[in-house]
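Appendix B, example 12.
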Amino acid sequence: MTIVIGLAPGERGDAAARLGTMLAAAGGEELLLVVVTPVPWPSTGPVDDEFRAAQDRITRQSLDRARSIIQDRVPATYHVESARSVATGLLQAAQRHRASMVVLGSSARGMTGLVSLGGVAERILHSSDIPICFAPSGYGRTPTPRLTRVTVGFGRADHDSGLLSAAAARADVMHLRLRVACFAVRPPIAQAGSIEPSAEDLVVGEWADQVQADINQSIRSAGHDPARVETVIGAGATWAGAITGVPWDAGDLLVIGASTSAVSRFFLGSHASKIVRNSPVPVLIVARTRATTAGRAASATARPAPTATQPT
């Protein structure tokens, strides 16, 4: 199988190349590194010639930077794709080579160390049913030799979606450990102290017990022993706090399920989007394999029916 890496100038391309190399090494796959250039048009003067020369220079630099990162660690092919847009070009290359996934860097406007979806990422996300993996901004500046663990972001919409089975299968193929994570954002009123802390702790504890039962059932359905799969729950006043409430390693890969529709190939609900945008580790977005209702598709975090004291 082939992993397509979308290269961009500078650090964004470097982060994608580093992550793609680690994914290919873990899964025994090949890389196709793609730089998309505008569809050429007949030159009409010095300005056009200068623009095309600058474009060629940027393309060469992007490919050279990627070669210096990948070296000979995994089989890799370097390709220039002409298209009307970057998103169109990457999708063309991925479909033509039957890619197993597309790997992208984060937006240059994002915070260092977090995943940030730019315009190209959003367009590809909503136009493709191929799994897409995003590298946090600046990913791999500190050497990370390899991936070590797959963490599944598990929620109510994933109870019977096949997400855990798909993530477990991917972890097996890549010889990585498997972990399941849930995130709970406590209501601000509870954080303000107007609810007795012991009552809030009781609610969170009951919620965690129910979540654990749902996870265990899904793990068994995926053919794994719940006793051998780590489960963690992150709680906080914000999504950033809930996600950082879970310990992360440099070799982690977070897997999130996305719904699909006739309008959008991948649809990230509001909760899933917040998880992705606050992730300090690479995020792989895959389609849920079973249909879910619109209400469940909008959630990517396990939570009970909301009340004033329950985590959301």
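Residues 105 and 307 are 38 Å apart (CA to CA). The longest strand covers residues 30-38.
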